[in-house]
Amino acid sequence: MRNSIEVIGVIPARYESTRLPHKLLRTLCGKPLIEWVWKAASKASLLDDLIIACDDLKIKEAAEKFGAKAVMTSTKHQSGTDRIAEAIRDIEAKIVINIQADEPLMHYSVIDGLAREMVNDKAIPMATVKKKIEKEEDVNNPNIVKVVCDKNDFAIYFSRYPVPYYRDASLQKTHYKHLGIYAYTKDFLYTFKNLPSSYLEKAEKLEQLRAVEAGYKIKVIETKFESIGVDTEEDLVKVEAALLKEQQ
Predict the structure, then answer these.
(1) What is the mean pLDDT of the chain?
(2) How many helices (H) and strands (E) would you count in the chain?
(3) Domain 7-247 maps to which CATH number in 3.90.550.10, 3.40.50.450, 1.20.120.1220, 2.60.40.1840?
(4) N or C terminus of the chain: which is more exposed, having fewer CB within 10 Å?
């Protein structure tokens, strides 16, 4: 670990969940979901520090039991961004990686890729990740967010709709899935947090559109690694099967 904290990873962990109650403490292969997320993120070599930002003592106690650093935050936050902003308020760090607490399959190289991009280009305020979509059904699934980028790999738009629309059927169709992991400069995190909720954000229910609509650039890096967010019992089964396969 380097002496100064340049990059910090934060896992915002909310105890309550509408579709899958208390999902972060549900067990996968004998360990709570949040532990798998933390273990995967811990492998990233470019993180100077990694914390779990909790809103319930049950998560904090579980996190400390498996060796994680955890901090308590307010139960009133409306988003993971708000929770992270509270958690790092008094921490001296230049770059913040927002790591989703319900994606245990997120590969550590994705975190390192984001960190490297932000460290190497100080002009970038925010970055995220895309992966080429392989299955046709995923293109039309509104729960899988798509992203389109310009020639310099900055996001033009994020949508639940299958963008781009291919009017010419002869063209080779390529769609990219947006993976919900973000990097920000610490300064921009607070700028982003304080931006008013935007029209496009409300329409698509996608927080990152707030930054796009306000005119800020979001760098998008590509990964070959798939990730599955856990929102249902079916997701738990899929992720557990994937984790078992990794351990073989």
Answers:
(1) 94
(2) 9, 11
(3) 3.90.550.10
(4) C
Look-up of token digits 């708000």: 82
Which pTM value belongs to this model?
A: 0.93
Question: Is 73:54 a contact under the CB 8 Å cutoff?
Answer: yes
Please report the sign of the dihedral spanned by the C-alpha atoms of residue 34, residue 229, residue 109, residue 221. negative
- Total residues belonging to the chain: 248
The residue to which tokens 């900055």 are assigned: 154
DSSP letters spanning 64-78: HHTT-EEEE--TT-S
What type of residue sits at position 47? L
DSSP 123-179: T--EEEEEEE---HHHHT-TTS-EEEE-TTSBEEEEESS-SSP-SSTTSPP--EEEE
56: tokens are 């319930």
pLDDT tens, 142-193? 989 999 999 999 999 999 999 999 999 889 999 999 999 999 999 999 999 9
- Give the 3-state secondary structure of residue 204: helix
